[in-house]
Amino acid sequence: MTLPLITTSAPFFPNIVYGQAGTSGTKTWSDRDQNIKIIFSTSPAQPTIATPSVLRFAVQNLQTDKPVTNVLAMVEIFGGASNQEATFRLTNITAPDGRFSINVIFPVIGSYQVLTRITSQTHDVSSLASFTVTVPAMQSASNLFGGNYIIWISFLIAIAIGAASFLVLKNTIKADKSKRT
């Protein structure tokens, strides 16, 4: 719940950072004081429990959108059942091209806070960013079948009709043979 505090205190602190969720599931954390933005995305776009997910980060110059090179990162993830202790922690991540990713498996449903600290190797850039990842209880039926669940249901019905027709035809042929003998 950091974003409402930042938004309401922004008029009092001009050098503040801002978080923003994009429409494609990508989230951006902008730090005007350090002149950088951190772009965050997950793959799959909606992580689920006990399924491998990839968290991707890209550090860019705020004005030019060019990568900030030679950065070191630390990522901590809090959340799930107990929001108090770190679920996952990784330090000393090197990102020579300003991009890095980590593989995680979220153990339980809930809301997770992903904190990352970015520091350039020359120590002229240092920023802390926070992103929220929500892990739902179940994947929806439309996501489970790739959004084409009507096609899958139709396919299953066609298979059932085909199997039933085969059994009826087989029994009819068997009955005809028994009448002949």
What is the N-to-C order of secondary-structure elements (H for helix, E for strand)? HEEEEEEEEEHH
Mean pLDDT: 80
Which structural class best describes the helix and strand composition?
alpha+beta
Strand order of the largest sheet: 1-2-3-4-7
* CATH C-level name of the largest domain: Mainly Beta
Radius of gyration, in Å, reads 26 Å
Structural domain tally: 2
Main sheet overview: 5 strands, antiparallel
SS elements, strand count? 9
**Which fold name fills CATH's third level, the topology of the largest domain?**
Immunoglobulin-like
Structure description:
The protein is α+β, with helices and mostly antiparallel strands and 181 residues long. The chain folds into two domains: 138 residues, Immunoglobulin-like (Sandwich); 38 residues. Helix content is 24%, strand content 44%. It is built from three helices and nine strands, in the order αβββββββββαα. The strands form two sheets. The chain has a five-stranded antiparallel β-sheet with strand order 1-2-3-4-7. The chain has a four-stranded antiparallel β-sheet with strand order 6-5-8-9, with no helix packed on it. The longest helix is centred in the C-terminal third of the chain and has 32 residues. The chain is elongated, with a radius of gyration of 26 Å. The chain starts with a helix and ends with a helix.
Sum this structure up briefly:
The chain is α+β, with helices and mostly antiparallel strands and 181 residues long. The chain has 3 helices and 9 strands, in the order αβββββββββαα.
